[in-house]
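Comment thread on ticket #2218

A.B. wrote:
> Attaching the input chain for the structure job we discussed in standup.
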Amino acid sequence: MYTNIRTSVKNNRLQILLILVFLIATITFTHALFSSKTVRVGLDNVAVRNGPSLSYSQMGTLNSGKRVTVLKKKNGWLRVRYNDQKLGWIPSWLTNRKFGFKQATKLSEATIVLDPGHGGNDSGALGINQKNEEKTYTLKTAKVVKKSLEDQGARVFLTRSTDTYVGLAARANLSNEKKADAFISFHYDSAPENDSGSGDTTYYYHKETSLKLAEMVNTQLKTKISLNNRGVQFGDFEVTRDNTQPALLIEGGYINTAKDFKQIRTETYRKQVASAVTSGLTNFFSEK
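C.D. wrote:
> Ran it. Output below, let me know if you need it in another format.
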């Protein structure tokens, strides 16, 4: 009898192997199906990527409230299944979190994170005279704005206070960690050719959390600064995209346009920006 069994197994090795592979795959899939957990996406337009970092290409987007199944975790990213059979990676920090509800009702109660763009070996844009680097003027502007806000009682953090390099992820993370009531990133624009661009622009990413803030600050910039105001626009910047708090980015004029830089370089201009930001935030927090 045992001889017959061995002979049968030997003659049917391929079929038996295929059955075993099928059984293992079925058990593995079933275990993953029932042991995996689901999470909710916390924001609109969360990018689904081919791999677990921002360097991978985008293959789609998910909106706030979408429930997805977690299959794997790696480096703070989640491999998820969504829309039945689609697979991709999303940031874990943009799931199962509450976004967009400001807590402070006045500026004196608020926590503000100010982000002077660039720094260190990242000079940012260059002026007509290339000794004039964007990183220098973003820091000068942020420091004046910081003092203005602190004079009103706000608690203010800078993502950098010296000429040092800070990664983009760290800037957004500081805002998230501090549960900032507002995050404002300062930059200066440049055009492909000198003197071919002009004006300041206010950018937001998450409509639900940040559009109103951007509108209120931009209204004040338009009133207090004599540059051509280019309005409020959607912008896909990491420091605002990965920010769970109300966040905006200001491009405060063109550093390589002579008439814009004539203002950008002055203390008067920086005080005007500070006044505009302070008034905009005051209105934002006081609005019911």
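A.B. wrote:
> Thanks. Noting for the ticket: Confidence is low (pLDDT under 50) at residues 30-35.
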